[in-house]
Amino acid sequence: MAKLKSAVKRHKQSLKRRARNRHVRSTVKSVVKEVRAGVAENSEKAAELLRNAASVIARAGSKGVLHKKTASRKIARLAKAVRKATTAK
């Protein structure tokens, strides 16, 4: 690795960002999985889980961890699945 002070600093910054981004992406995957599980068991909590998931996903999109359109697409697909599950009852 370069011994330039600026290069060392940039490397430290990139490691911090990588850790933060990995945590956020992992959290997004977890909430999506929870919503899908709620939909699969026709739980009444699916709508509540969707609200929580939409918040987490939108925050990831606004921070730049996910692309804004990717975040929007994920929320839309989850909402569609929840709507389909609740109307099928």
Which oligomeric form is depicted? single chain
In round numbers, the mean pLDDT is 94
CATH architecture: Up-down Bundle
| Annotated CATH topology | Methane Monooxygenase Hydroxylase, Chain G, domain 1
Beta fraction = under 5%
Number of strands: 0
Structural class: mainly alpha
Q: Please state the CA-atom Rg, rounded to the nearest Å.
A: 18 Å
How is the biggest beta sheet arranged?
Answer: none
Reading off the top of the CATH hierarchy, the class is best stated as Mainly Alpha
Count of all domains: 1
What report would you give on this structure?
The protein is mainly alpha-helical and 89 residues long. The chain has a single domain (5-87), classed as Up-down Bundle (Methane Monooxygenase Hydroxylase, Chain G, domain 1). The protein is 83% helix and 0% strand. Helix 1 (5-40) packs antiparallel against helix 2 (46-63). The longest helix has 36 residues, at 5-40. The termini are far apart. The mean pLDDT is 94.
Question: Can you give me a brief rundown of this structure?
Answer:
It is built from 3 helices and no strands.
List its traits.
single chain; 89 residues; mainly alpha; Methane Monooxygenase Hydroxylase, Chain G, domain 1; 3 helices
Topology:
Layout: H1 5-40, H2 46-63, H3 68-87
